[in-house]
Write a structure and sequence with these properties.
Helices cover about 80% and strands about 0% of the residues. The protein has 26 helices and no strands. The radius of gyration is 32 Å and the shape is globular.
Length: about 475
């Protein structure tokens, strides 16, 4: 009897071994191949391997997380989410992958939930970074600031996060912004220009006695660095501090337009508060320009020029309005008046030269001398040098134009307008192969840009 029981046991054990050993061997083989694929960045194959292993080895719950992480690495976010949700526990990397997968599919609420749950288990810079991203999309600026501060508490090397935190602090806690901007600039020189702009604004703001004006200064600086969401928040804060601040209302209207909103209500409110403000008039001029209502644009700039007759900006803007109305005879003296008001500023000589060259107006006696003045005042400005080449072209001096424009390209290889003007010069000279080469270069080098589109149009026109 004893021997019979043991005999049955051994038979069952043998049968189980015969079944399980191949399963175990296959399961662990899938794991090894999946790990090799993951290391080789063959993420799709790794997903399949981890998934097959998880089915063969059901007690290995961690394999679902590994499959999810591999799917996330493969940017297959919709596949990663169910794998990660199937895992009973997630690592720090798993929580980050789950949150990021939801965020990349546009599901911010479950992304936020994943980051928050992960942070209950791990004090993780990656999870705080994800949290900051979600709050940024939701425009919850104080919450984004807090998340970034926690992220940087754990990882101080992220230049962009320092920069972003500095941006937020400019209007949330201005006295704390400068160190973050300075650190971002030291970690990444690409942020230096924007950081300097914001730092200068903070210094100017600190010297202003009125809190609303301080915030207005900060908001304008945020607009200068193309952070219009934050700029809008700063202008709203300025208005909350002083509801009668006309310029803050006008700038709020501008910020809304930059963000694809209407903005006219705010501009009308600004005009009601101060109809003599040149800033209000100028921003209304921009609004009418975007609306294609150039007579209203002209009227706004005419009033700005009347209120501030020594400011060349309004004369140049008035010239632009006349140009868009097709009144070249009125545009020319406006541009000339701007140069008279600022004779040592190359910008206004350049604008006058561009007007003359592009419209064939007084090129010889006004436009070309204006371009030469611009270059004399700003010899290293590619815009000034380019307009000199354009002026030579417009006056029929093709050899001079070619020489000047080749010089611009040699010194400033990414200044694409010079290539366009050089192509025009080559076409005028009958050198079609050279023109074709310049246009092809712009089309390819400025992919998706405005000059690439212009080059494409010229290629269709001249080289069908």
């Amino acid at each position: 009897m004893f021997n019979k029981k043991y005999s049955v046991f051994y038979v069952v054990a043998a049968l189980l071994a015969a079944i399980l050993i191949p399963v175990l061997f296959s399961g662990y083989s899938f794991i090894q191949r999946a790990e090799d694929d993951f290391a080789a960045q063959n993420y799709a194959s790794a997903v399949q391997g981890y998934q097959q292993a998880a089915r063969l080895l059901p007690w290995r719950d961690d394999l679902w997380e590994k499959a999810g992480i591999a799917a996330y690495a493969d940017k297959n976010y919709s596949e990663a989410i169910p794998f990660l949700n199937r895992a009973p526990e997630l690592s720090e990397q798993g929580w980050a992958a789950l949150g990021n997968s939801h965020a990349n599919t546009g599901d911010l609420v479950p992304a936020l939930r994943a980051y928050q749950k992960g942070l209950n288990h791990y004090d993780s810079p990656a999870l705080y970074a994800g949290l900051a991203f979600v709050y940024r999309q939701q425009k919850d600026w104080p919450a984004e600031r807090d998340a970034l501060q926690n992220q940087l508490r754990l990882d101080i090397s992220d230049a962009y996060s320092h920069y972003r935190l500095g941006l937020l602090l400019t209007f949330l806690e201005p006295e704390k912004a400068q160190p973050e901007l300075t650190l971002a600039s030291s970690l990444d020189p690409e942020t230096d220009s924007a950081a300097q702009t914001l730092t200068a604004a903070l210094n100017l703001s600190a010297a202003q006695p009125d809190a609303s004006e301080q915030m207005l200064t900060v908001g304008r600086a945020l607009g200068l660095v193309q952070e219009w969401d934050l700029s809008l928040a700063a202008f709203e804060k300025a208005i909350a501090m002083d509801g009668e601040n006309a310029e803050a209302w006008a700038w709020l209207g501008e910020a809304k337009q930059q963000l694809g909103q209407e903005g006219s209500v705010e501009l009308d409110r600004a005009l009601t508060l101060d109809h003599r403000s040149v800033i209000v008039r100028a921003l209304r001029g921009l609004y009418w320009n975007r609306q294609g209502k150039f007579e209203q644009m002209r009227a706004e700039y005419a009033l700005a020029a009347e209120f501030e007759p020594t400011n060349p900006v309004w004369q140049a803007s008035l010239g632009d309005a006349y140009l868009k109305l097709g009144d070249l005879a009125a545009a020319l003296p406006a541009y000339q008046k701007a140069t008279e008001l600022a004779p040592t500023d190359a910008t206004y000589w350049r604008l006058l030269a561009v007007f003359c060259a592009e419209n064939g107006v007084h090129v010889e006696d006004v436009g070309l001398p204006a371009a030469q003045n611009a270059v004399r005042l700003a010899p290293n400005d590619p815009l000034a040098l380019d307009v000199l080449g354009l002026s030579y072209f417009s006056s029929g001096r093709y050899a001079n134009a070619e020489q000047t424009l080749l010089g611009v390209i040699s010194r400033y290889p990414n200044h694409f307008p010079a290539y366009i003007h050089l192509a025009m010069t080559h076409l005028a000279q009958g050198n079609r192969p050279a023109a074709f080469s310049q246009l092809i270069h712009v089309r390819d080098a400025d992919a998706g840009g405005v000059y690439a589109s212009l080059a494409e149009e010229m290629l269709k026109q001249y080289f069908p």
